[in-house]
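Whiteboard transcription, Tuesday session. T.W. wrote the structure tokens on the left side:
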């Protein structure tokens, strides 16, 4: 007889799927609540596998939610970025590295180019290791259809990013160097960390006054960040914390998170910078995590 313990056993993986599908912690939690209600009310005698049943529920709820979200994002003010996720609950270190790559901001932004169905098939196969036969049952398509969808999705993502592998230690080192260069107002050191075609994207949701357009080019991005740190650090203090599986910067003002900045680091260079300023997406974060660095350290 299946119980609520069966739901708890699979909750971490189910939440991971929902978050990657939706790019929103709050929406993923809502999906989990709805899935739990359906699990409680389901006739357990008809369920052969709790994992398969729950994954089907969560996937289909996410596909429906994502279709609605795409419509809502057409009205979103400025660029839309995923809601920052503080950490992963995965316990296996090897698996953790693999999953961290698939929750990086850069990866989730790429997923936005896929349709809801394509995203579901790609994630189930590439991240959660479902076979195409299993996925076919979940999304109500044939295995051949799912194989084709998965291949098409991977090709599309590879066009936007040649490889997905991320060296976590390299990211941590680069982020630390980036922060020190900004704090020290060292423009040459900052430029040395940036790829020539580096881009900078902010998500304000129209609720914070900031740059709305995507900025590109090492010189422009470096000048912007040195200017930001001259003006805001202090009173804003920046903490290095694990966000979306990698080192990131949390900006705190009066012990309240006001920004989260994540990086796309490849071959030791920063190729993209993403900053979330929308306060609605920062509610689940706290200050004091990780290592504090800022001009206060020089006192």
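and on the right, the sequence the group agreed on:
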């Amino acid at each position: 007889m299946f119980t609520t313990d069966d739901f708890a056993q699979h909750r971490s993986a189910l939440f991971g799927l929902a978050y990657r599908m939706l790019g929103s912690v709050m929406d993923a939690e809502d999906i989990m609540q709805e899935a739990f209600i359906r699990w409680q009310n389901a006739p357990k005698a008809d369920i052969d596998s709790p994992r398969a049943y729950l994954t089907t529920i969560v996937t289909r709820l996410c596909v429906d939610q994502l279709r609605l979200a795409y419509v809502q994002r057409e009205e979103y003010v400025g660029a839309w970025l995923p809601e920052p996720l503080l950490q992963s609950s995965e316990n296996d270190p090897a698996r953790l590295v693999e999953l961290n790559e698939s929750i990086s901001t850069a990866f989730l932004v790429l997923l936005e180019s896929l349709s809801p169905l394509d995203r579901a098939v790609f994630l189930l196969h590439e991240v959660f290791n479902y076979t195409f036969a299993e996925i076919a049952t979940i999304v109500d398509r044939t295995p051949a259809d799912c194989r084709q969808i998965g291949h098409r999705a991977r090709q599309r993502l590879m066009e936007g990013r040649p490889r997905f592998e991320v060296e976590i230690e390299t990211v941590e080192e680069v982020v630390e160097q980036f922060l020190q260069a900004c704090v020290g107002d060292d423009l040459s050191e900052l430029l040395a960390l940036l790829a020539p075609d580096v881009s900078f994207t902010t998500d304000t949701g129209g609720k914070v006054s900031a740059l709305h357009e995507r900025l590109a080019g090492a010189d422009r991005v470096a000048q912007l960040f040195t200017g930001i740190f001259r003006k805001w650090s202090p009173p804003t203090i920046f903490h290095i914390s694990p966000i979306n599986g990698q080192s990131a910067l949390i900006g705190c003002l009066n012990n309240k998170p006001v920004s989260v900045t994540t990086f796309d680091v490849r071959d030791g260079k920063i190729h993209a910078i993403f900053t979330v300023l929308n306060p609605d997406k920062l509610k689940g974060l706290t200050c004091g995590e990780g290592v504090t660095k800022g001009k206060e350290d020089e006192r």
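Someone added at the bottom: Residues 89-98, 289-299 have pLDDT under 50 and may be disordered.
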